[in-house]
Amino acid sequence: MQVKKQTLDFLKDLAKNNNKPWFNENKSRYIAAKENMEEFIGGVKKELDKKDTIDKAKVYRIYRDVRFSKDKTPYKKYLHATLNRLGAERRGGYYFGIEPSNSGVGGGFYAPNKEDLLRIRKEFSLNPEPIQKILATKKFKSYYGELLGEAVKTTPRGFDKEVPNLDLVRKKQFYVMRNFTDKEVLSKDFFGAVVDGFQTVRPYFDYMSEVLTTDLNGESIL
Question: Which pTM does this prediction carry?
Fold first, then answer.
């Protein structure tokens, strides 16, 4: 299972020729790239299903919605996919994207609703040890480095500014991402690296799933 050079070449050319006439002339190249993406992410799903339960792997359309955007270029410069976990008790989603010089593997919680956000912040402030332990593991730090996401500038209302991990409490997004060079993407080892990245973030997902499906007393809310 491998990302083909033709897939990256198509995306490079698309970035230089982001218009409908060129795209229509090269539609067969797009179809081949999309099929390569679907085959690759389908293989990843099979591997994840051995240790997790994945609902589906979704490859997104390359067509941009330009109705409310100042950027009217009609196509994305990348191909991307998500793998959603099955069931309300399993939270977190895996992300994979192919883009020349900017391919990435990651996932997490990009836009938690206000109830989930408050629950996460309360857990991080009252019981910081579990999340700190997960983020400090050698494998997590080696693959992803740190937990990413936008944060508010001040201490959220209702929280003590002296909490030990205020940096996490201030976050409003909680995700990870690792980027790969084009050479890495085209290597025969890339498939294994993607699977390894998703398996590395799994303990974080399992912990967050427990948090988001229970109240502060540890009682299920499902």
Answer: 0.93
